[in-house]
Amino acid sequence: MGFFDLFKRKKTEPKVEEPKVVTPEPKEEVVAATPAETPAEQVAEVKPQVVEQVAPETAEEKPQVVEQVAQQVVEGKPQVVEPQQVVVEEEEDDEPNIEEERKELEEGLGKTKEGFFGRLKRAIAGRTTVDADVLDDLEEVLITSDVGVETTVKIIEAIEARVARDKYMNTAELNDILREEIAILMEESHRSTRDFGIEVKEGYPYVMMVVGVNGAGKTTTIGKLAAKLTRAGRKVYIGAADTFRAAAIDQLAVWAERAGATMVRQDMGSDPASVAYDTLRSAVANGADVVLIDTAGRLHNKVGLMKELTKIRNVMSKVIPDAPHEVMLVLDGSTGQNAFEQAKQFTEATQVTSLTITKLDGTAKGGVVIGISDRFHIPVRYIGIGEGIDQLKMFDRKEFVRALFGDAKK
Ligand SMILES: Nc1nc2c(ncn2[C@@H]2O[C@H](COP(=O)(O)OP(=O)(O)OP(=O)(O)O)[C@@H](O)[C@H]2O)c(=O)[nH]1
Ligand SMILES: [Mg+2]
């Protein structure tokens, strides 16, 4: 089904009665009404309101698992917050303006570019050929741009091999060689730009669990991603499984509203796995296309982290056997080497399948994208280059090196 069919379908879909909008209760009352850590099983059986809203035509298209789930009684007490209005901005969907995108990316990576090139320029000033001294200086430039030692060594060795082969290499060629060698090292994960790189099977929720330390940018990334997907005509459910702070749920609610996505939440302090479960149940029952699960960013010890993430995963797979389809680790790019350390901790604790590196706009440490991608062999899905709703970009390694090194000269 093409985009326009989709768009048409959205518009002509029979309007199911007025969606029930549940406005978040003030947090004091919430805490008093439901003690923290109340297991979902003990709560009175309440059907999520959206279960009744399944449109008959979508119910027919659902895979078997969807039917089973829809018929089961939901034990939890989720509050489903429907968006007031889904904003569909047509011009964003089909063909993003490539020039515009490139300009934004170049601006977003401006500090890294300046830092890197400033140093590189100084390193090769007055030299014409790439010799051992130039390579020494280049090595230092790469390391101080937070590319990481291992990856720097790989890049230098690759350039040395080319110098040995070609006998003579002009410093003017260095940019082109660097961009080629760096692009080879990075992994990306999109086959197409459709649905912002996610392979959506309509009505069968693609479940993405988002993990990362405190303040990395998980909630913001979820909000931006949800906005892209709803604009592409997708039905997006967001699970507020960061139940650690009331403010976290409210922050996510604001993003869900802006993005036109439906958020499923429970009270602060409730079990994150139970929220994830409720979200998937509602998503399945309503034929959602994508589910994004926000998680708490506490810096756990590894055992605690593993236990919590495993519990969430297990519970989700009870609703959709192959969920989560993706575990995305969000890293704050401006923390440089610290981001490597976080990637190490998380990949040891759980199976991370993709990366998003945020805050590249505010830092000259954008080299982390190169190093982390190379070292962990996990594809970078998105990069964050600002706080705005449109400042999440699909990671494209060619565009990334292009933004840093400019167009190839040859
Ligand atoms: N400049 C910039 N700021 C960002 C970007 N992504 C996120 N932020 C900011 O980083 C801060 C933390 O982002 P959150 O999304 O709340 O981070 P989180 O991982 O959900 O944090 P916790 O919920 O505390 O674990 C916010 O002020 C965001 O606006 C980005 O790409 N660029
Ligand atoms: Mg958050």
Mean pLDDT: 79
Helix and strand pattern: HHHHEHHHHHHEHEHEHEHEHEHEEH
For the largest sheet, list the strands in their spatial order: 1-4-3-5-2-6-7-8-9
Intertermini distance:
40 Å
Low-pLDDT segments = 1-76, 86-93
Q: Per DSSP, what share of the residues sits in E-state strands of 2 or more residues?
A: 5-15%
Query: Which compounds are bound in this model?
Result: guanosine-5'-triphosphate, magnesium ion
Helix content: 40-55%
| Cα-based radius of gyration, to the nearest Å | 23 Å
Count of helical segments?
Answer: 17
Largest sheet: 9 strands, mixed
3D shape:
elongated
Which class of secondary structure composition applies to the elements?
alpha/beta
- In total, the number of strands is 9
